[in-house]
Amino acid sequence: MSKIIWSKIDEAPALATYAFLPVVQAFTKGTGIEVETKDISLAGRIIANMADYLTEDQRIADFLAELGELVKKPEANIIKLPNISASVPQLKAAIKELQGKGYKLPDYPEEATTAEEKELQARYAKCLGSAVNPVLREGNSDRRAAASVKAFAQKNPHRMMKPWPAPGQSQCRVAHMEEGDFYATEKSVTMEKDDVIKFEFVDAAGQVTVLKEGLKLIAGEVFDSSVMRVAKLREFYAATAAEAKQKGVLLSLHLKATMMKVSDPVMFGHAVSVYFKDALEKHAATLKEIGANPNMGLGDILNKLDKLPADKKAEIEADINACYETQAKLAMVDSRKNITNLHVPNDVIVDASMPNVVRDGGKMWNKQDELQDTIAMVPDRCYALMYREIVEDCNRNGQFDPATMGSVSNVGLMAQKAEEYGSHDKTFIAAGKGVIRLVNSAGAVVMEQAVEQGDIFRACQAKDIPIKDWVKLAVSRGKASGQPVVFWLDENRAHDAQIIKKVNKYLPEFDTAGVEIHIMDSVKAMRFSVERIRRGESTISATGNVLRDYLTDLFPILELGTSARMLSIVPLLAGGGLFETGAGGSAPKHVEQFLKEGHNRWDSLGEYCALVPSFEMIAANEGNQKAAVLAETLDAAIGKYLENQKLPSRKVKEIDNRGSSFWLSLYWAEALAAQSKDAALQARFAPVAKALSDNAAKIDQELIDCQGSPVDIGGYYMPDDAKAAAALRPSATYNAIIDAL
Ligand SMILES: NC(=O)C1=CN([C@@H]2O[C@H](COP(=O)(O)OP(=O)(O)OC[C@H]3O[C@@H](n4cnc5c(N)ncnc54)[C@H](OP(=O)(O)O)[C@@H]3O)[C@@H](O)[C@H]2O)C=CC1
Ligand SMILES: O=C(O)CCC(=O)C(=O)O
Ligand SMILES: [Mg+2]
């Protein structure tokens, strides 16, 4: 029996799973393939981590740890749906929901002072931020639009693109720091031998504090350190806000407080405290007393004001509101509810937010609910430069055309917690002026960084085997596609300079004959790629972990309308496969819509596409011919699904995710009934195809009639399975056919 693990996760894709997984389980019955869920949702991870607070029957196993082991084995075959990378406000909300369900969990201690509180905070911190992906990603990533999906997108271009103003007329620009950012301060070495590193802070008086001990590095590993100088960061925020005010454009900030859970909330907090400086400094003592923390956004500060007497609360609110008058106008997340870009650190996530700026013609939403030019602050040049380049390109050449534009796919260095995305346990906020130094087992200083109080120090690793595998994957994608491969590496960035050496060392080991290969910094690489897509040509970007994340949302959103439609394969180093569904997130807005009006606009194309290589892997590794047939027929069904445009609509009372999955299952059953490679499958699915097809109009209607009113699924972070299943499988006619399989 082969096993496919289907991750149980959060929000919109979790809702979609209630509709689609029963279909997959029914279709695979009797094929030697078992599809099993493992709960790695935020709620599930909290429960697993806090078992000692819970009753026996409330406990669940640590499935994330289990899967973390599985990915190191050749039999791993995991369909990984996007999960919540929780910010502190999300973690608190999830804990509250669980407490309401009778889980006797302690509150999350925001201000940990006692040893007990600190321990609790550390335990909960395991559930914060990007806690799942780095554990499962024991391989590099291959993200691209399947040929059928790209062809569909060109034939049926999405209508979300808004025109850019005439050349040179947009006031949109990407603002970044010119000094004192991670880009400027980065130092990097390649380890000559295995070693163990100690992190020390040495204050101005020479007093040494150990920050971390026992970091094991192996020979060939690239090891970096860098610092974000917060004084420079604050100057940058203030100057950019002044510029936005003077130009009368919206000010916006784009970070990744979810994934970069240690550094980015702090960078976010500085933006909040610079923008609302007058109010927050005036009331600093009171705000400190009530535990208001700018790192959690203005929204959290406003909530904490409830702890104060009404007159004091009103006074501080008035002072905060006065800042809006003297400062630049902020981009809005929800203008009706007056939620700004600075309210919640996880509302604006750069990989999804910057593509929308490009898509919307260099604009974001203002308070009047209109689109307006924005100055987009992306402080660190490691990533800002490429966004700057694409924005400038659009300001010169206008909007892209999804009907004709080529594609930029990605091969990303990601395995074994590569680079920034593995840096959380090596990120420290400097306690004072001094030096943070990295000392090896012989007592020698490997690298050191001067810091001022509050500076964000970060160290990153990238292991040699993953780097070599990444080069190999890039070459093989170049060969298979005939497209040029561009390594986005900047010799002026210390880390990239080390990686360039490795790329040049490993390229000759692979068969690169006929493959066009370039190494370019992110500005040149973006220009090269964008010039090509405007000519309808496609390019492979081979990047580090962060650019992987950013580019695999940017181009898909422009090309396909959403990164949900991507094929996202992680060939695991140990031989297994992790098949991620799409490249985007968990679309919290979709859940909101579903609860309000019973329409789930989540597009599961990513899930459908991911299943194909998952079946193919079983066919290849175990010679299971039924798996090969399932893969081929599903692929054909996806083609038909696209051709017949059965994608979910954004509007209530039109086809939604459930209807989409129904049509996909009909086409899949038809393809199984039509094939002749496996007679048993053919015989089994012929009546199913007929029943689904005979009842198609009825089922389609049932899946629309059920929409239009609020839905109760018994929870947000931990829905009630029975309620959710009922809500997401509302067609009795359809269920009867599937359940009879
Ligand atoms: N691999 C993973 O596990 C990932 C997890 N995340 C997590 O997801 C959460 C939300 O992230 P965020 O960046 O805000 O946004 P999302 O990527 O969830 O959504 C941004 C927008 O993209 C569109 N979208 C995304 N997926 C789909 C889909 N399947 N079908 C249709 N439209 C889609 C929606 O646009 P519209 O409003 O126009 O419908 C949505 O509002 C966070 O907790 C984040 O950490 C994020 C990225 C990857
Ligand atoms: O793990 C996360 O937080 C998000 C991952 C992500 O955005 C990506 O891989 O594209
Ligand atoms: Mg992403």
TrEMBL record:
It catalyses: D-threo-isocitrate + NADP(+) = 2-oxoglutarate + CO2 + NADPH. Binds 1 Mg(2+) or Mn(2+) ion per subunit. One of its GO terms (molecular function) is metal ion binding. Its cofactor is Mg(2+); Mn(2+). It comes from the Bacteria. One of its GO terms (biological process) is tricarboxylic acid cycle. Its EC number is 1.1.1.42. Keywords: Glyoxylate bypass, Magnesium, Metal-binding, NADP, Oxidoreductase, Tricarboxylic acid cycle. It holds the Pfam family IDH. Substrate binds at S130, A131, V132, N133, P134, V135, L136, R137. Mg(2+) binds at D351, D549, D553. Transmembrane segments: none annotated. InterPro entries: Isocitrate_DH_NADP_mono (IPR004436). This is Isocitrate dehydrogenase [NADP]. The lineage of its organism: Bacteria, Pseudomonadati, Thermodesulfobacteriota, Desulfuromonadia, Desulfuromonadales.
